[in-house]
Specification:
single chain, Aminopeptidase, Alpha-Beta Plaits, six-stranded mixed β-sheet, four-stranded antiparallel β-sheet, 17 strands, elongated
Length: 430
Amino acid sequence: MIQNNSSNSDNVSNSDNVDSSSDVQLKSIEHPTQSLDWLTRLIAFDTVSRHSNLALIEDVQAYCEQLGLTVDLTFNEAKTKANLFVTVPAGENADIINNGLVLSGHTDVVPVDGQAWSSEPFTATIHGDKLYGRGACDMKGFIACALTVLPQAVQLSNSGQLRRPLHLALSFDEEVGCLGAPLILADLKARGITPDYCIVGEPTNMAMVVAHKGIAVYRCRVHGKSAHSSLIGQGVNAISYASRLVGYVDTLAEELSARDDTLEDGDALFTVPYSTLSVGTIHGGTATNIVPNLCEFTFDYRNLPHMTQDDILAPIQAKVAELNAQMQARAPETGIELMQEESVPAMTDNNSAELQSLIAALTGDDERHKVAYATEGGQFTNAGIPTIICGPGSIEQAHKADEYVELSEIERCDAFLKKLLDSCTTQPST
């Protein structure tokens, strides 16, 4: 049941409607059977990245086990978070088996701190044609639809009609650097499983995204030498040297935007059709009359799929070496540290033509899109798994107060996954 008000209750009422058309029946009514009810349940789990996601994972695990499926979990080092991977196997005597199709989603959500919500963010709330709640579009809506289609997949497997395995992959800590998915992929490699395709259900309004940029985040720490501002010759100004490096990063960004020698066919599909550099934060200094001994700033690099971090890292490191020499000529203990904090690979469309054709046929939309934001899709393509992004809701609503997904988007995703499942089955002869 969907809460139609802003109640603070964390209790979620479960649907008692069991799909009588399916031979697969849950052993109890502990879990929902419809996508909106599943979405209500998932939103009620506070899976902000700084918190554990184990309650949600254990709930989904119980559901999958009720369906007779075997669940594999991989944990973070502290055992406070887990990924979930579950497979609906191909039916006996299936003519096509291979390693199947993955439906992939992340369970973590961004914080609500400091945001002015009109309703309780961890209670699903319907107003008009929209369902509000943290994670509604990013990306518990897709997960809800994927969980809803599982019983039908199991039924088809049991009847021998499922021609290739269907996998569900749920990860942790996507929002803080895509930290969970590599553990899933490493586990699959160790088990000799290389899925044929992957669909990442990030919000795209059910449009097909075939590629995205990579992202690398760097922190630069400039160590100067303090002195009274009336005796600046005795100090080394960390802010001044940081500003020189910031200026160089900006210059490099302008050069990247003007280069056409790095462009490839299809790059024009990106909203920003070149690699970008952007300084995001800067902190330094203690008082106006003190030469600052420390300044830190961060910047990110969003690269086109065929470009690498070396394209910007090598010139920036050369500039750091130049500035270090200048600083250390005045005070040997000074210098600049350059540290990488995040790295998520780009998602390419190099090997996904067959998957793209399938998705276009199922959605009736042949248009391809490329985006600047990063997802776990790049990690799947790096593992040799052709991947596209397609999911309910708009990225415009992600991370904001009053995040929502339109109810029609959930309906479209349900219909899409039903068609996708049908494409993996042997149709009975007439």
